[in-house]
Amino acid sequence: MRFLVPFFIVLITGDVMAEARDLSIPDPETAAASIQQLNIEYIEAARTGDADWFRQHMADDVIVITGSAQRLDKAGFLALFDSPSAFKSLTVRNVTVRVFGAMAQVDADAPWELADGRTGISRYIDTYVWLDDRWQVVSAQITYLGEPGS
Amino acid sequence: MKPATLLLILLLSTPVVLAESGVDEASVLQRLHEACEAYEKGDADYLEGFLAEGYTLTGTRGTVTHREADLAQVRSGEPQYEVFRNHSMVVRFYGEDTAIVNGITSLKGTFHGEPFELDAQFTDTMVKQDGVWMLAASHATRIEKPDD
Question: Terminal CA-to-CA distance of chain A, rounded, Å?
Fold first, then answer.
């Protein structure tokens, strides 16, 4: 039994060391491509009101700052999808992805039009972290820029 | 393995993890506190060692600015801050090198003689580079008051 104890400690230590090096983190090029794709899916989910996409891709402790400066947790953000989507259109432009190891950020402008005809542009930054072998949104913040051409 | 042995291992390892997390949170908050002071004093030298290469700021009007432009603005002496204070902060760590800080910045000062005062919700993304916490990105959204 005694020799099992150091063996167990070695297993634990080895696991911690592997986590510290985190060999599973994708290289920056692969990461950037993944974040680009996730950003497209994110915008499409926002346009169509697809709460399930956000439920799956947002970390449990995500914090979202809305355009009206509300600070929402995951439950609060998902509750926004209880009403049908008001978007007639929602697109992105000026997309920039930056990768910092196990963290990546995407920022962009998002011109939108609501079903009632109102239009506007919002700017956002989403932060993704490599958690449980996949990219998860841990933070999102939105700033309303005004109407197109303003 | 005896349950007592496993318990001993957990007891030995847990306080270390908690202690390191506490130290890191204190380090992050200290860096942000010092940065606020630097903005108040117009201390561009401190901010040079605080804003990471590639740093971006999305300001309350949605304008995106970068490290060199922000440092140049601080060196220009405009705006002048009487108050630059972060509060109501929540720090989350992801791994050893990433921290996300949400909070409120209260600002009061003048810009070319015109007074301003506002609160903004911010998200700061901090990355640890060479053992030092640096600001990689900041995004601020103005909190509208009823009389704004």
Answer: 75
Q: Which of B99, B87, B90 is nearest to B135 (CA)?
A: B99
CB nearest to B54's CB, from A98, A122, A127: A98
Predicted structure pTM score: 0.83
pLDDT tens string for chain A (150 positions)? 454 444 444 343 333 333 444 668 999 999 999 999 999 999 999 999 999 999 999 999 999 999 999 999 999 999 999 998 889 999 999 999 999 999 999 999 999 999 999 999 999 999 999 999 999 999 999 999 988 876
ipTM of model: 0.81
From chain A, which residues contact B within 8 Å (Cβ)? Answer: 1, 4-5, 8-9, 12, 20, 22, 61, 63, 65-71, 98, 100-103, 105, 107, 122-123, 125, 127, 129, 131, 138-139, 141-145
What CA–CA distance (Å, rounded) separates A68 from B144?
8
CA gap A136, A141 in Å, rounded? 15
CA–CA separation, B75 and A22 (whole Å): 40
